[in-house]
Amino acid sequence: MKINELHQVFLKCSGVCTDTRKIKSGDLFFALKGDNFNGNEYAEEALAKGAAYAVIDEEKYSGNQKILVEDVLKTLQELANYHRRNSSAKIIGLTGSNGKTTTKELINSVLSQKYRTVATSGNLNNHIGVPLTLLSIEENTEIAIVEMGANHQKEIAFLCSIAEPDFGYITNFGKAHLEGFGGVEGVIKGKSELYDFLMVHDKVIFMNADDPIQKEKLGDYIKKYGFSTMDQRFYPIHLISANPFVSIKAEGITILSNLIGEYNFTNCCAAIIMGKYFNVELKNIKAGIEGYVPANNRSQIIDRNEHMIILDAYNANPTSMSAALQNFAKMSGRNKILFLGDMFELGESAHEEHQKIADLIKQLGFDNVFLVGKNFFKVKSEFPKLGTFDQLKQNLESLELPKSTILIKGSRGMALERILELI
Length: 423
Hints:
Layout: H1 3-12, E1 15-17, E2 27-30, H2 43-48, E3 53-56, E4 66-68, H3 72-85, E5 90-95, H4 100-111, E6 117-119, H5 129-134, E7 143-147, H6 155-163, E8 167-170, H7 178-181, H8 184-191, H9 193-200, E9 204-208, H10 212-218, E10 224-228, E11 235-236, E12 238-242, E13 245-250, E14 253-260, H11 265-277, H12 282-290, E15 300-304, E16 307-312, H13 318-330, E17 336-341, H14 350-363, E18 368-372, H15 374-377, E19 385-386, H16 389-397, E20 405-409
Helix pairs in contact: 1-3, 4-11, 4-12, 6-9, 11-12, 13-14
């Protein structure tokens, strides 16, 4: 079946699904394969649960309501690109080392004040997630915010070939996925593939004009629209405070966010300048920023048993960890306690980067610290080092914590939100 024909089938379906546990009546099921599963084996189950059709790529599973293609994943990607090309929606591509998902949510909150928008669900930002986001674009969608993640070279370029963004923004270039990118320079090169696509196609780029890497990369490129705290050539936005929540001043208006940490200032700024570019009134931009409340373990403020807890356990890398620690040090609060978990995907830099964090903790003057994970277990530090979460649990069971201000941060694989059950 040709892509244009499959697209007509898709338009008659209620949506797209790749997981039989989430099938809705009338869905178009794509039988994707993984390392430990073959989606073709679940096609019949998908149909039984109400899917209108199932796209498969193994002939032995053929049957009624099944569409046989050469490669299900490639077909999903091609269908997404075809749908994108046949949509009038403007596409905003978003990538970066830190803050992508928060920035995406802020942009969506601001732009949805005026436009019909769709945005990446959660962090479904890879070679499967990006197509699924594009296929969620409806006939009346005006703007789609597409988050793009990557852990190696050429991945962003590939995602751009599917999404073909009209606009783009890179949050920052940090020490994330160093193992796959081959170091910081590799991160810069890989993330900049979004810039490369936009410049080749003469598209608009949103930028943080205070970021020296972005300034250098974009040079004299004409179609750029940015914010700055000091360069008068760009839209002026200023940080008022971040103790604990980020408050901002733009055009004399104060915007009070629900986000902690100075590192979220630029994320808010990105949403503000996109709102300005798309002619959203400043009062509505303010409403969009102030209406966003973080969830899913991302800089959440939780009050529990008289403790104020900052739960930032969705992800971590050396850049975000350092920023979180420096912000926590500036915050007012009683009896500060740190629970820090390992940072993943650092390759040969793992020991060095974990040691730097341990050194930073001491430099910032923290007293109550728990380091969790096999990488932190190897660093030189005077603070308790627990190789596993179970060891941390045993340690905490014998302690009675006074009323405290607590920061919990680590990579997703550490699942440090489990600490909440122990406090």
